Structures are given as C-alpha cells and as structure tokens.
Amino acid sequence: MKHLKQPLNDSPVRLFCVLPTDAMLTVPLLAATVLAASLLLASCSPRTAAQQADSPVQEKKRGYELEFSESFRPGMNSVDALGISIVIVMDTSGSMAERPSSGGKAKYLQASEALQTVAGYLADFSAHAGDMELKAGLLTFSDKVRTVLPLTRLDAAGLAALEAACAPEHFSPRGGTAIGLGLERSSEILAQSGTIFNSVILVTDGENTIAPEPDKVIEAIYANRNNKSTEDMPIRTSTQLVSIIGFDIDSPKFARLHELGARVTKAGSGDELEASLRSLLEADISKLEGN
Q1: In CATH, what number is assigned to the domain containing residue 125?
Q2: Average pLDDT over residues 211-230
Q3: 176 and 40 in one domain?
Q4: Tens digit of pLDDT for each residue in 31-86?
Q5: 14 with 77, same domain?
Q6: pLDDT value at residue 52
Q7: One domain, residues 28 and 91
Q8: Same domain, residue pair 32 and 128
Q9: Which residue has the higher pLDDT, 288 or 166?
Q10: Domain, as residue range, for 219
Q11: Considering the domain boundaries, does residue 260 fall inside one?
Q12: What's the pLDDT score for residue 16?
C-alpha cells in the first residue's frame, strides 16, 4: 500500500495525514484521521479574548492585596452621602524627635502645632458646611499604626475631639517608619466612611522601613485589591485621594508614589507643613463644594 503525506493546513502546528491509495480503505481511514487532526488543532489553537480574561478574583490576586481587619463593614462601601472624609496620618518615628534643617523645635512639636492650626481651619469650614458631611480622623505610625481619633463627624463634639487629638503628647517619637501600614489602615477607614469623597494625607520625615512598601499599597488602593472584595460585593478604594507630605526630606524620594497617582509635596518647617496641609485640604474640600 502506498501512502502520501499531505499537510492539513497552514497552522504553526504542522500536521500531516496519511492517505492510503487503496480505495477500499481510503474513506474510513481518512474520516478518522481528519477527526483526530481537528481535535488536536482545537486543543492547540489560541484562546479567545473572553477565555483569556481573568475573573475579578483572579485579577485581584495579581499584586499586593490590602489587608483589611475582621471588623471591616463591607456594606458601608456602597454608601456615598454628600460629604468628605479626611484621614491625617502623622509620622511619630524616632527621627521626629530631631529638629528640622530649618531649626526651631523638634519636628513632632512643630507638626502638632501645624495640626492644631489646621483643626481651626476645619472648624471654620464645618460652620458653613450646611447639609454636607465633614469627617476627620487622625492616625500616627512608627513601628505600627495607632488611632488617635477615629473617623469622626466634625460637629461641635467632633471638633473638640479633633483639637484634643492634636496635642503634642499624642506624637511622642519612637521606633521605625511604617508608611505602607499607615496608608493601608487609612484606606480601610475610608473604604467604609459613607461619604462620596475620601482623602488620606500622610506626613513623614523619612523613608519606609517596615513592610508593606508604600508603592505596593498605593497600587492596591487604585486597583481595588483588598482581602474583602468578592465577585458579588467588590470593595472599591480607587477613588480615594492619596497625598504625601515630606517633612524635612526631599520629595524626589517619593517620585515613584507620584507616578502612581499620589500627590506629593514637601515642607521644610512647621509653617510650611501647616501651609501644605491647608492647601491639600482646601483642594479636597473644593471638590465637595463643586457638587
């Protein structure tokens, strides 16, 4: 019996069928051969775009994932009342006990004074906010993150609590610089704030020394990657505004964070820190006033 080798198609996978010349065997053997070749080609062909697309859960796993606590309330993520929630995160690492290059008091004391002035600005805005909600919270970070003031509505009682939270005894310097953890905790708070606008402003005089890295956290915030998201109830964080103020440190050190979408500025003294905080707050609140 003679056999002829003939390519089936122009696929990158070169398949040949063996064609017998015996007329009595040609039909059944050819049919079986073509069927087998078709099945093999189907298994080798590229997947369609729909087949290649990852599910939301698969997409979430591609990078660092924000670790929200067990007390997180997923239902609050879909509440968007007209208002703004602001979390200020203050560095209390050991280096904040030093004086800035511009001189004067220790950095943590100057930071405390700047916050007290900013609290007065928020009080003025709150008095004219009408039905708009204004909330604020205050965190500190060194080796770990501490809550000085939980996210609080700035009515009369809330403003008094904010003023007390800005006192210098809450900013005693010690330990390392957990910038990433500070951003992560802030994102969790803002993800359940119940307001349509959300902002975190972090002040630091150094670079991150404790995992996770700040750039990984910011990437996760803007990609909505967190351990509480599901396909049925995704937890959105990508609308949160992230700002970094480098206090007595060159802001180019945070260039990567700016590339990812964070607002980055610097302050060389307590007065400049106050001005930077106020400028960022005014920019955030102007978004609320425009609605």
Answers
A1: 3.40.50.410
A2: 97
A3: no
A4: 454 455 454 444 444 444 333 434 444 444 568 999 999 999 999 999 999 999 99
A5: no
A6: 40
A7: no
A8: no
A9: 166
A10: 70-289
A11: yes
A12: 42
Q: The pTM is what? A: 0.79
Taking 90 as the threshold, does the pLDDT of residue 271 lie above it?
yes
Q: Are residues 233 and 131 in the same domain?
A: yes
- If phi > 0 it is left, if psi is from -120 to 50 it is alpha, else beta; for residue 261 that is left
Instruction: Return the number of other C-beta atoms located less than 10 Å from residue 205's C-beta.
Output: 21
Within this chain, do residues 199 and 141 fall inside the same structural domain, yes or no?
yes
Helix (H) or strand (E) holding 195: strand 195-204
Q: Which residue has the tokens 């008094």?
A: 160
200 and 119: one domain?
yes
Could you report the per-residue pLDDT of 245-256, keeping only the tens digit for each? 999 998 788 999
| Residue 80 included in any domain | yes
Question: Helix 107-127 to helix 156-165 angle, to the nearest 10 degrees?
Answer: 170
Comparing C-alpha atoms, which of 278, 192, 277, 267 is closest to residue 237?
A: 192
Place of tokens 């879909």: 78
The alpha carbon torsion through 63, 64, 65, 66 (nearest 10 deg) reads -150
- Read out DSSP for 226-285? BTT--SSS----TT-EEEEEEESS-GGGGHHHHHTT-EEEEESSHHHHHHHHHHHHHHHH
Question: Six-digit token pair at 176?
Answer: 């390392």
- Does residue 23 sit in the same domain as residue 101? no
Number of domains in the chain: 2
- Split at pLDDT 50, 70, 90, the class of 291 is low
